[in-house]
Amino acid sequence: MTGRPLLGQRPTRPPSTTTIPQRPPSHRTLSQQFPSGSPARRGGGGNEGFVDLTLESDVAGRYGTVPRMGSSRLRLEISDSSNDSDASPKQHSDATTPWRTSVPPRGRPQLHFDVPNSSNPGFSASQQEAAHNEVNNKAMPLPVRPGQHAPPTAEKARPALGNSAKKEGRPKPYVLEVPTLAPRYPPNGHADFYPWTGNHPEDQFSEPVIRQGYFDKAQMTQNETGTARAAISPALKQKTGLQTLSSLFTSVLAQRRSHGQVTASWAFKPPPRVTVTDTKREIWLKDLANPTISLRRLSRSIPHGIRGKVLLDQSLSKNIPIERAVWLAKCVGANELRSFRRKGVSGTFQMGGEAKWIRDFTVCVEQFVENVMGSCGEGDFKGRINYAIRLAAHFHAEYLLDREHYMDWLVSSLENSPQAKLPLWILITQVYWKDLVKYRKYGRRLAGALLGHVSELTNHPDHDIVEPLLDRLQQLLKGLMVSNPDSFVSPRLWAKHEHTMRSSLLSDDSQFLAVFEKISLRNKRLTIPGIEKKSTARQRLIRLLDMNLTDSSMHDFPKRCWQVDEDKTMLLQAVLEWSTSSYRPGSSKIFVAARILRFWSKSGVDVTESILDFLDSDVVRFGRNKTSFYHLVSELARSEHFSTPRYLQWLISRGGLYGATDAASDGPCATRLLAELPLHNLSDGIISLHRTLLDRADFSVDEEELRMRICMASMNRTLPSIQANADLELELDDLPTSDDFSVLLAQLSRSSKSEIGLWLRYKVRVQMQQPTIPLLEDWDTSPMKGGTSAITVSDFYTFRNYLELIDDYSMLADVLKIVASSNDAEVLASCADTVNLHTDTFAAIGALHSLFDILTARLPVLVEDQDFIPRIVLVSLSDLAARIPERKSIADQLSQELAMSDRKNAADACSPVSDHMAMMQITETDFTDEIEKVLASGNSMDQATLDRLFQRVVLQLEMVWEKSPEQQRSCGLLLTRLRTFDAQHFDSIMHNWTVRFLNMTDRPNMIRILGPLISFGCLSFQSVLASCEALNEKDALSTQRSTSGASKELLVLLLGPSNLLGSMGVEELYRFRIKQAHVQMDFAVEVLATIRQALEIHHTSEGGDTYDANARMLLESRSSWELFQKYALLHTESMIQVLVIPMLRESGSPNAVSVSSIVDKLLLGDSQREDITTEAILDIANDLTLPFCQIKLESMFTSEDSLMSGTEEGRSERLEAFDSAIEAAVDSGKTAWASIVPLLDKSIAYHLRRRAQIQFLALFPSPKSALAYDSSALQGRLIHAENLLRIIDTTASSATAPTPMSSNHTSLAVDIITTLSGVRILLSTSHAKQIKDALVTKWIPLLLSFITMHTSEFEATRLGHESRAKAILALSAIMLELQALDTSTEAVNGLIEHNFDLALYLVDPLPDDMRQQCIRSLRDTVSSPQLHYIFSFAANPSEWLVLSQKESIPVSNGGPGDGTDKRSHEKEKLTPFPLRKWELLGDSTPHFGENDTSLSLTLFGARRG
């Protein structure tokens, strides 16, 4: 419909100040050609710049109505046409046009005298003013009738756009508009306005209309002649009058409601999208950015192509207001999502398509924010990032995004954010803080991200630069810990960052400190026991002490031991027990303990009091090495750290000595110590008291002194060159000597040995003319001054031998320091060899590094005296430096110096050795001299020459080894000289010769031939071990064992005494002892294998007489048992796998008997038992005997396995016995078994653990048998369950399920779920209060601890995750039952919290699909905030909406077969009502119908206004 043709031309309007172009008058409608009296019409031209994308031409006026001027439209057009022809050419502005109606004041209706007379345009302004004053003097008019005049509206003119598009001139369709002044009376519409449309009933002619005219209402058939009072009043006067009146009003209201109900069908549609040009799209977007243009006008159509990333970028670039940008996104999203429904798919495919589109839009939003963050540093960055954050936050708040994907992106970005962007991500994350902490899986990650960044910034090198950021993070962490402590319940996360948090976050705030400690406690409850089980302080100290037996690199060792624990009394007792234990070999432990106690005495420790308390305890009676104890106290008394007078006072207070047994060598330590104490630094009164107390015990002090003097006299006669003036007071020359010196020396007490040690040191000092005697514990690096080379090397050997026999290594250290001032190279080399042999002991004393430095400081003195360093000194010091890790650089320098010394020859020896080979004579008499001449004739040698010379020497050696030991020694020295030319090639050919030597049928023993070569340094123990191993492999493949004695000979070579080597020098024998000691500690596995092979060969030989007597004595000697003890302590696993298990494969065999005797002796010492049971082993077990108990238990299980030939019956019997022994130990309160079990084989620990698991779950009360238990039986089962839980805890770290038994994981998980379900049933049913109290206080905490230990049972498989989900649901049900209990004590609340924390710990690895299944199972039953947090489920705010539908259900009241009386009743059915967030649009269409809203009004029973 277009505008009607004009009958006249409108006069030209005066020019306006607006810049909006005027449309051509020929295309204007009638309503636009005539001005309206409404202010809204006059001011409505401000929006003419709006562009409608759905039309080709410009928009017509807002209304298409004709002003009511009392005439028809045709007459008005004619009248206007005539007025235009008579108009004056003078133009006036709208503001000064005299005929325009003025607007009355606001708040007052427009009256007839307010309208100026338009027919008299000459009416002057003064006359108007006078008339106005006259009007003001009149009385106020009567109030206007309601609705007669509409209030004036004032619209602000919107400034026109500067780049408005060119207007199109085509006509617009006619639109009928209601005049603004028309009063409106809802619901009847506007008064005085009823436009003609051509279809009115008035236009339908009929006979009644023609005869009587048209009436709006039908004629009354009966005219009212009176009032209705007569009809109604009697009814109201009755008793039911009030009910009658109420029913009348109710019916009226019901009719009103039914007539006003919205019944139109829902016709909502989002704004359509149309394809437009880029120019119009830009104009539309600019109109959208203009807040003065209403969304209703823009909703006529939306440009196509604005979606996703383009929509977000356009919103940012055009600076579209946030609300309008969200509106545009909703319009686009609603159309996109509706397209999935129009495609014909339904159900899962439709939901999947919608979810994918929302996910894609979420990714676009995330990328949009990241891109804006990437523009950091630009000028408008602040505004851009602010807009992006606000826009994304609006999308999130209105549930337009995939919230889980979006929050996962937020947390991941914060976790992986670099420090440069960290402030921005913190700012962004804080916007969603409350939403993130509602989810467990995001709240925990948020806490972890903050903790990680705090730890990283705390250790940042530029701490001062990042300090503001660190402070901000710490404030956020504190706030999060106070408001949401559940997010920090994560044992691994807490263990990783707890130390950093304690150092940086803790302050004087008591409230925050309480929160921090509470979180720490909650995480400790969830720490899996056994996996990271910490040893006790006593165990850590003993482990540290054992390490010091072989590791000499710990300078601050006493300080480290002091810092192990705050319980110093326990530390002192542990050191005394360790140093005096019979399970710790050697004398190094004595000096380690003495050094520790001396150091600790500086910190205020009373050493004397500690030793006296130790003597008064029960520990000293069992497992003590009394000799070691007396030696330790003697060393402390010698340095005056142990007070002998206080000991005498303590002894007298206890009654003193009563009989000879008290002072006997095997007497009690508390009384025998009196005879062992040194007396050299005591006063005469104390010595007299000492003698008196010993006389009471029939201990002859004179006899002891006589034996000591006889030993001194024997020693003195072996030292003829030592000055005799030191012995004038002793008068030793007149004393007899002993024929059996070693036996006499062994009978001496430690007191006498201490006196002998002091006497030997004094003799050395006098011989070296030393002015002072150094203190025992005082070591400086400077050598002793003023000494001479008075002592010979043979005298030094004698002194060293005596001090080693009496184990007085502290005096030996003093002697070495005194003798180190000698200028004799052999003496200095012997000093270095002595330190090398006793490295561990001197390190324990604290003299190792000082002695080494003193010896190395003597090298320049030797160079000054002899112009070179003797080779013997270089060899000894080089070997010693190699054994000290801190002196590795010096060792390298000494090795280079030794190589240069070996290559250095006479000045005329500058040609190769091969040039002089022809001059070599072959006679045996001068063989050595000739080889020496050849070796000295040149400074280089090729491999061929080396091979020829080597063959000549070894041939000579093979010829003379049965004839002349001296020539054999000469050959060994020649080989040593020959090795200096090419050590690598020489070692290769030497190894080949060793193999050939071992394969000889008629050859001497290894120790006679190979021993000297090893001592000289031309053959290594490693080469001999490798050769013997190859020989044993060869014998294992052959049927004839012709070389079966090689292992026995090798055993003698490794462990035998040096006196078996034959005619060799003292120093050469001593160096062989050094090589033996080194190979024993460095090649423990090879030595153990040699011992096993020797034992096996002995028992497989016919008759057994072929077993070498030396080998038999070696295995029974004291040194061998000390070596076995060292291996048991330091190489426990190697001893079990290499020695014990292989020899026990045949139970009852001689091999098994031999190794069993060795193991029993290691465990029991000299006190043998016929049969050692598991209970006996557990009785012996403590922190000092653990390795030996482990070896014995392994041997027992291995022997049982071999006895039963691999059957499970015998093994099960042994395991059952072991289980019973463990349970008995637990019941008796012993704890040592807990340290033994982790050391055993993993299969044993697994069996013990599995059995305890089954028994533990079987002890729990079940719903069926709960009433059958009385209080005593229930208490007994509880104690048993606690003991089983201790066993499970102990075996947690060592129990590994064998591969065939891995299926038990699932069954255990099922048993756990069954037990949880039973506990829930017991809590929910009405059982006795006693059972419920027992469950709450005892059983449930045990079960929670049990589940914490077995979280690994829920494997990362499908079945494992299902079991994990079921366990979490069961824990949730128990938590709800506990919350429903009437009692609310601290114990109950703590149990609820523990249950909640365990559920959190289990739910973290749960996959999302299992999590959703748990949510679906719980959504319809319970609604708990704690459960929502556990499963990371936050309900959508619109999920509570349901649609109520009524269904008619027929109900028959008649009898069977009688269908006459049938009724029906309505049943309400509630179905979920999904709220489409994307379609919640305002201003979705420019023309609203009755039910065009985003939600159908019929759902709410809406009525028209």
Automatic annotation (TrEMBL):
Compartments in which it is found: Nucleus
Biased composition (Basic and acidic residues): 1459-1470
Xref: Pfam families: ARM_SRB8, Med12
Record keyword Lipid biosynthesis present: no
Protein origin, superkingdom: Eukaryota
The UniProt record lists the keyword Transcription regulation: yes
Biased composition (Polar residues): 116-136
GO MF annotation terms: transcription coregulator activity
Composition bias, Low complexity: 9-21
GO biological process: regulation of transcription by RNA polymerase II
Primary site of residence: nucleus
Disordered, as annotated region: 1-51, 63-170, 1451-1470
UniProt-listed PANTHER family: MEDIATOR OF RNA POLYMERASE II TRANSCRIPTION SUBUNIT 12
Function: Component of the SRB8-11 complex. The SRB8-11 complex is a regulatory module of the Mediator complex which is itself involved in regulation of basal and activated RNA polymerase II-dependent transcription. The SRB8-11 complex may be involved in the transcriptional repression of a subset of genes regulated by Mediator. It may inhibit the association of the Mediator complex with RNA polymerase II to form the holoenzyme complex.
The protein's assembly and partners: Component of the SRB8-11 complex, which itself associates with the Mediator complex.
Protein known as: Mediator of RNA polymerase II transcription subunit 12
Organism of derivation: Lachnellula hyalina
